């Protein structure tokens, strides 16, 4: 029998994917919904009185996990989801500089009322809150978190007297974490090389690290080749541009050309680029400013 809650969590899944795709981020989204049986097991495991109607309730009937390709996109994704849904609370581990281990970055949001109204579990179990959980991870740590959670966190006694192996497992996580930052640095270096070679399309792709995969129009390339437009694009703050798209509710398909038009409209303000901006993009941006 199909778990109807899985149908409802897919609504959250699709909405979150659409919002992150609007920003052009590189990511994967995973989702799941607890069954009535798994909820009953969780209540039993926690013991009588742990959950109550007037106190603490189960907050993760629905769970979303967002895996970002780059660590500097974590905060952008968090801001994006907090803009979509009402934020309730967060559980974020403080990084321990002397120890490598899995770090939680879990946010709780209020469920949209239409999902609350349709949920069979929420109607029948008053120990379940009208909330859902979003876990933010990086793509390289995603699999490691699953292994650590299922085979160490849930089975702590298996690791008693095996501190050397536990430390080795932490070391594997450490190598993944440093690889993520190293990969980000690699793309920054690649963007710089393309900038020095005046190869604007590759420079833009590797600087902004978004789903942009196309080439510049000849008209844009001709303008960027003049004066210091290429330098201004290279020096543009990546996060600032993406947050402008997020907070400005800009819903334009992201590609290299549209990215240049958006960057020019808000930051560079070169009249030559403004003059060749496609009318639909100009109209959308102008209307958002009204």
UniProtKB/TrEMBL annotation:
Residues 31-159 form the RelA/SpoT domain. It comes from the Bacteria. GO terms for biological process: guanosine tetraphosphate metabolic process. PANTHER family: GTP PYROPHOSPHATASE-RELATED, RELA_SPOT DOMAIN-CONTAINING PROTEIN. This is RelA/SpoT domain-containing protein.
């Amino acid at each position: 029998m199909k778990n109807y809650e899985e149908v409802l969590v897919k609504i959250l899944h699709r909405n979150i994917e659409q919002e992150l795709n609007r920003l052009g981020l590189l990511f994967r989204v995973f989702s799941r919904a607890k069954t009535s049986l798994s909820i009953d097991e969780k209540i039993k495991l926690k013991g009588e009185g742990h959950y109550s109607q007037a106190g603490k309730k189960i907050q993760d009937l629905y769970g979303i996990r967002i895996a970002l390709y780059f660590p500097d996109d974590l905060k952008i994704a968090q801001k994006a989801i907090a803009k979509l849904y009402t934020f309730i609370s967060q559980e974020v581990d403080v990084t321990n500089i002397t120890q490598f281990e899995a770090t939680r970055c879990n946010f709780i949001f209020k469920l949209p009322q239409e999902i609350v109204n349709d949920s069979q579990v929420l109607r029948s179990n008053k120990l379940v809150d009208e909330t859902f959980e979003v876990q933010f991870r990086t793509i390289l740590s995603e699999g490691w978190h699953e292994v650590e959670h299922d085979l160490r966190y849930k089975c702590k006694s298996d690791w008693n007297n095996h501190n050397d192996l536990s430390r080795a497992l932490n070391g594997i996580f450490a190598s993944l974490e440093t690889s993520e930052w190293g990969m980000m640095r690699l793309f920054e270096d690649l963007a710089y090389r393309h900038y020095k070679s005046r190869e604007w399309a590759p420079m833009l792709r590797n600087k902004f690290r978004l789903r942009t995969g196309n080439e510049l129009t000849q008209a844009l390339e001709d303008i960027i080749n003049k004066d210091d437009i290429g330098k201004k694009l290279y020096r543009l703050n990546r996060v600032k541009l993406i947050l402008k798209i997020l907070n400005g509710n800009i819903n334009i398909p992201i590609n290299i050309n549209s990215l240049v038009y958006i960057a020019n409209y808000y930051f560079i303000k070169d009249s030559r680029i403004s003059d060749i901006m496609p009318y639909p993009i100009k109209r959308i941006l102008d209307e958002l400013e009204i």
